[in-house]
DNA sequence: AATAAAACTGACCATCTGGTCAAAAAATAG
DNA sequence: CTATTTTTTGACCAGATGGTCAGTTTTATT
């Protein structure tokens, strides 16, 4: 029987889920090189040999997690649509990115560490999907500039700024929490921080924004 | 004789320098947990036992590097002075940070990984020096707002945005280079990117900026 | 209940880890 | 040049690492 269409068994589903979750934790905390399969197994509550039954190598496990991160990345990417109103399109995109930073901080950290290490696992993604997406958005932003809808700024640099700001709230959450009296940002604070980012960036590129 | 005032011998100076340089490389690339003393020693061109003669433990070596990063951080911090003109003060600070991001990308990456891992080595610095510095700058920014010199934004969130944008160019240099046709940003591009950041942020908080 | 397939795991392995040490070599001081 | 201090290093250690495997237990199917 073709295993491709075989339903995943109950224990497989349960264990793969808890391994992936533990691995996300550990990879975010220690990076690929620093993470150990025995620590991941311990956090997942299973023996190491069992982990290797589901994911034969540390690399395979890491790649599975990288795949999840891509999926999330693509979801946010889709919110940047070719809209007539740059203010609406950009504010929707920034908000989507801020949302992801809050909901998936571990993925963001793993991504950051991958890039810092020279993207050994995701270089092809950068060169194909990310590059393609960026070029198409650069075109849209250029059109907005040509139509006089936003100030003349280099589109790529604008995107970098959006990425920087939004990912910062995931990657540097610990630093922000420390400055916030040791507390994570509340829902209200996070909404403020999001509005703040949207406002500064939009006003920064000359888009009127109602407060 | 008091060794504290003893001049460092020639070999000591030479070796400590090359070890620190190699260690900065490796820690930035692999994080504290992932870095190995034998790899650092190999890159420094000395046997591992010799490395441990100068830095008894991996921690001691790491702390020495963290100390260097603090020094650099403080240098940038000083450029944010209590100036009458927010535009001038902020643009000077942003430029200083961008400069550091370019000149010391490894330090920035090590800092980023420290924070992502929950700041095991620098928590006290965050709670004392960084917190104190931030509070004092928040006061200055609040005064600017009260005087109507800049728009009403949360000062802390403004600082986060500045940190995010400037550090991004160090931490995510590889991603940016990939999107830049595999080339590092040229001097000219880096100047553009810096001006772009200054412009968007200043305009974003309602400061006129001449282009 | 019988069978086949999937899941589990203790014990094991070669290699690498941070770190030590004693003895040799090089640098420095008198 | 001699004596002393500093530096260098191969060999070594106990523990951890990623990964394997054979045999047992659990689950699913009939």
First-to-last CA distance of chain A: 60 Å
Low-confidence runs of at least 5 consecutive residues of chain A: none
Largest sheet of chain A: none
Beta content of chain A comes to under 5%
Calculate the mean pLDDT score of chain A and round it.
Answer: 94
Task: Summarize the largest interface: chains and residue counts.
Answer: A-B, 56 and 56 residues
> What is the correct CATH architecture of the largest domain in chain A?
Orthogonal Bundle
Estimated radius of gyration of chain A: 20 Å
User: What is the helix/strand order of chain A?
Assistant: HHHHHHHHHH
- Using the coordinates above, name the CATH class of the largest domain in chain A: Mainly Alpha
Specify the overall morphology of chain A: elongated
Q: Enumerate how many helices of chain A there are, as a single number.
A: 10
What does this structure look like?
The structure is a homodimer of 211-residue chains. Chain A has helices at residues 10-34, 37-44, 48-54, 58-78, 86-103, 105-116, 123-146, 155-171, 173-179, 187-204. Chain A is an all-alpha fold. The model of chain A has no long low-confidence stretch (mean pLDDT 94). Chain A is elongated, with a radius of gyration of 20 Å. Chain A folds into 2 domains: 1-56, Arc Repressor Mutant, subunit A, CATH 1.10.10.60; 67-204, Tetracycline Repressor, domain 2 (Orthogonal Bundle). The first copy, chain A, binds a DNA duplex (30 and 30 nucleotides) through residues 9-12, 15, 36-38, 46-50, 52-54, 56-58.
């Amino acid at each position: 029987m073709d295993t491709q269409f075989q339903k995943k068994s109950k224990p497989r589903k349960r264990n793969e889920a808890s391994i992936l979750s533990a691995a996300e934790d550990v990879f975010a905390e220690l990076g690929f090189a620093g993470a150990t399969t025995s620590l991941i197994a311990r956090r997942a509550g299973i023996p190491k040999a069992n982990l290797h039954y589901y994911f034969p190598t540390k690399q395979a496990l890491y790649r599975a997690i990288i795949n999840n991160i891509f999926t999330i990345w693509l979801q946010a990417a889709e919110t940047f649509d070719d809209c007539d109103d740059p203010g609406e399109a950009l504010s929707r995109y920034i908000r989507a990115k801020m949302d992801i930073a809050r909901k998936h901080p571990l993925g963001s950290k793993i991504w950051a560490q991958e890039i810092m290490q020279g993207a050994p696992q995701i270089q092809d993604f950068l060169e194909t999907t990310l590059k393609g997406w960026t070029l198409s958005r650069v075109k849209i932003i250029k059109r907005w500039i040509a139509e006089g809808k936003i100030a003349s700024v280099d589109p790529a640099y604008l995107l970098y700024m959006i990425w920087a700001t939004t990912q910062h709230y995931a990657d540097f959450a610990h630093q922000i929490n420390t400055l916030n009296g040791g507390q994570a940002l509340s829902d209200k604070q996070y909404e403020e921080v999001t509005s703040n980012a949207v406002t500064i960036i939009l006003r920064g590129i000359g888009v009127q924004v109602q407060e």
